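Technical note accompanying the year-one report. For the benefit of new consortium partners, we illustrate the data format agreed upon in the data management plan: each record pairs a sequence with a structure-token string. No post-processing was applied to the example shown here.
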Amino acid sequence: MLLNEQLAVSAKPRLSVRVASEAQDIRRAQKLRFDVFAGEMGAELASHDLGIDCDEYDELCDHLIVEDAASGLVVGTYRMLSPAMARRAPSLYSEHEFDLTRLAHLRAGLIEVGRSCVHRDFRSGAVIALLWSGLADYVQLHGGQYLAGCASVSLSDGGHQAVSLYRQLEAKHLSPAEWRVFPHLPLPLDRVCDDAPSAPLPALIKGYLRAGAYICGEPAWDPDFNCADFFMLLPMGRLSSRYNKHFVG
């Protein structure tokens, strides 16, 4: 191999991000979701026997995937519901967990995201960064004014970490009252001590907050996934300068 060919090979990025274009790509993303949600978190999935995580929203959504060139694996994924496709859905996915009445006037410009996960061997931050970059392109393409979705925190410790995290976020990152949402099944904050030792913010929540997102109220309790879900809302006009270069160039 010639030297310039060797340099070209060595310079090729190991990780890349794109919107899935074929059914087999989506299937690979669903397999990753299954491995993380069912295999690691112990989620009770209706699609468990298929060995993938899938639901009725997958056909309406676009799927962002991060691939590892060395292994060929999908190592990160995000699911996006555009405003146009949301009009074809009976409701937003988040409405299964939250009353979103106060956000009704934002719907025309709202992109809902969810089902985010990263392969356990690739959680150093690079994959999350690529997912955010991919979201940036997607938001621009679809003219989104708001990015919204749920960020999950495991309840494997009995909920102490989730309650402690909510108390921290409530003090600094709570949305204005007119953007508040209300969980159908609230996490019982008053029955769980917020005495968990300080821990790093989950990467997804950290990414939202650094970009300028709000939490829009108390977390919902998702028994099937054994997690607390925090509803996050990012108005694109509020983007921090750190993330602005990704979203508006």
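Partners are asked to follow this layout when depositing records. DSSP finds seven helices and ten strands in the chain.
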